[in-house]
């Protein structure tokens, strides 16, 4: 005897796997690493006639009319961050986005003014 729990096929959500969005690739075409706090914005090279490879890429470009962090992009479009990084790499490769690093990579931060502000804010807590 089977029990009807009220689930339908529509409740299951999309049936394609995330790797289908990237064509099975797990790495972007560029060697750049996208940090979660990096800000992404559409470049001036984007024209109305530009051929966008996927609906997900088009949605990213729409979100990036204003600077948007990589983490926000992933949360809004509902894809795993690895997939978002691959799509961003493709858009960067095509020159359709610009990426602004929020912090220098590697090395030690020696900006004393920055460290003073951080210490100031921690004391205020």
Report on the structure:
The protein is mainly α and 125 residues long. It has a single domain (15-124), classed as Arc Repressor Mutant, subunit A, CATH 1.10.10. It has five helices and three strands; from the N terminus they run αβαβααβα. It has helices at 18-21, 55-63, 70-77, 81-93, 112-124; strands at 39-42, 68-69, 97-100. The protein has a three-stranded antiparallel beta sheet with strand order 2-1-3. The protein is globular.
Q: What is this structure, in a nutshell?
A:
With 125 residues, the protein is mainly alpha-helical.
- Which term fits the overall shape? globular
- Strand/helix succession: HEHEHHEH
Helix content: 25-40%
Say what the CATH topology is: Arc Repressor Mutant, subunit A
Count of extended strands: 3
Proportion of residues in extended strands: 5-15%
SS field, number of helical segments = 5
Q: What's the CATH class, please? A: Mainly Alpha
Task: Quickly count the domains.
Answer: 1
Write the CATH architecture name: Orthogonal Bundle
Question: What is the subunit organization of this protein?
Answer: single chain
Order of strands across the biggest sheet?
2-1-3
Structural class: mainly alpha
- Main β sheet profile: 3 strands, antiparallel
Tell me the span between the first and last alpha carbons: 60 Å
Residue-averaged pLDDT, rounded? 80
Backbone CA Rg:
20 Å
Uncertain stretches: none
